[in-house]
What does this fold into?
Amino acid sequence: MNILITGANGQLGNEMRVAAKDHPQHHFIYTDIDTLDITDQQAVLDFAKQHQTDMIVNCAAYTAVDKAEDDEQTAAKINADAVRNLAEAAVACHAGIIHISTDYVFDGNACVPYKEDMPVCPTNVYGRTKLAGEQVLQQICPDAIIVRTAWLYSTFGNNFVKTMLRLGKERDTLNVIFDQVGSPTYAADLARAIFTIIESPKKVPGIYHFTNEGVCSWYDFTVSIHRIAGITCKVVPIESDAYPVRTPRPHYSVLNKAKIKQTYGIDIPHWEDALQRCITELDK
It folds into this structure.
């Protein structure tokens, strides 16, 4: 297959590059803003046709949650309009499409893990634009596969794990929120799950949830990051109110992963196991 991967310089895009080495039977076309502007409708269509695209994996997104509040137009162009362009290109090329979305389509007020069919209710621009992307994709490509994830990190780019490693080495004490809970996601594990879907003989369209197994707070996550890395910084649990941000984050971001496990037979590692592997990789 000719597989087009957008957002290839981001965390997930880079992990897709790494995972692709185990799938030499496919030809991969990696793009980012420097090689393909996915907000340009004609450019996307021409590019997809030129490369005889069989599958599109959209890892591109506007993820700056606070900045999105001031720049809804750009967030919407990348998170919704660009998805429309990719969807139209997929239809024109008779290609499959896998699109990555987010837990932010929910309001974070649940107390049980979110299933794919639970009511969506985004509370900020980032969540609203990502939901709009999901909706336009399903309208144009009923056969599309959408994978929502949360708390993404990897050895690439900027993320919570790297920040806590750096701050843990710089400071004696660190205050971290304990009343927001979710499931961290190692982008390398998400990339492997995407390849399982790509190579599945029977692809079942729809929305799926993927994170690593288990649940923790940002505080618990930080404690584990430091323990694995051998950092002795004192981590102090604080409430969200003590760490004001421009855009409130969901208090509960746990996603139910039963559907993706049952449909594609995916075995998902626990978040602590995944974190250990990521930090080991960073140490290299």
